[in-house]
Amino acid sequence: MELDKLKELWMDSNKSSIPIDEDKLRQILSTSSNGPIAKMKRNLKLEVISLIIVYGLLLWATSNEDYSIFTTFDYVLLPVTGMLFLIYASIKYKQLKNMECVSCEVKSNLTLQVKSLEKLVKLYFLAGNISVIFVYLIAGAIGYVGTEGERVAFPSTMEILIFLSIGTLLVVINYFLGRWYLFTLYGKHIKKLKTIIYEMDEK
Question: What is the number of other CB atoms lying within 10 angstroms of the CB of residue 164?
């Protein structure tokens, strides 16, 4: 495993006055396709490609619909969320690239970048949950006004309870699905890096 090699390389440099072999470090961090850093970069690229395809299909489907307040909402929501995701992805990719820095002190650089990446993933998770609540409330309000026509009466207690119940179910599903999704793509790899950093401290 390349992280075991990384730990061994770092330990050897501490035991002697010989600096870390940058060529060897570059090979460990940059060329391996099985390490957590490489896997997270690959997963991030797949996320971006998937988003471009899905958003392209959604915009195409929206453009073929008759004009309504729903299509206006979609035209605003999709580009905004897409741009925010791309900004998030670029920041995350930059952090992953920084983890491969061969001119940096290995342990301190990894520690700093892992902490930053962990915070960014948590922010992504929080934003995803908030977005689901926001979109559901706005879509529900628009849908209700659209079905009521010109005379919009305040919804009954039963309608409100049903709406909130469905919303709560969606939020709970999104919460656990989002946790599983982020842990599979990034969380388990971040955990592996943190374990290596901890083991470096123990030695």
Answer: 11
Amino acid identity for residue 133 in this structure: I
Among the listed residues 129, 136, 97, the one whose alpha carbon sits nearest the alpha carbon of residue 113: 97
pTM of the model: 0.64
Q: What angle do CA 93, 97, 100 make, to 5 degrees?
A: 155
Domain regions of the chain by residue span: 2-97+104-202
Higher pLDDT: 15 or 173? It is 173
How far is residue 141's CA from residue 11's CA, in Å, rounded to a whole number? 60
Q: Rounding to the nearest 10 degrees, give the CA dihedral for residues 186, 187, 188, 191.
A: 120
| Rounded average pLDDT over 93-112 | 71
Among residues 134, 102, 144, 95, the alpha carbon closest in space to that of 117 is found at 95
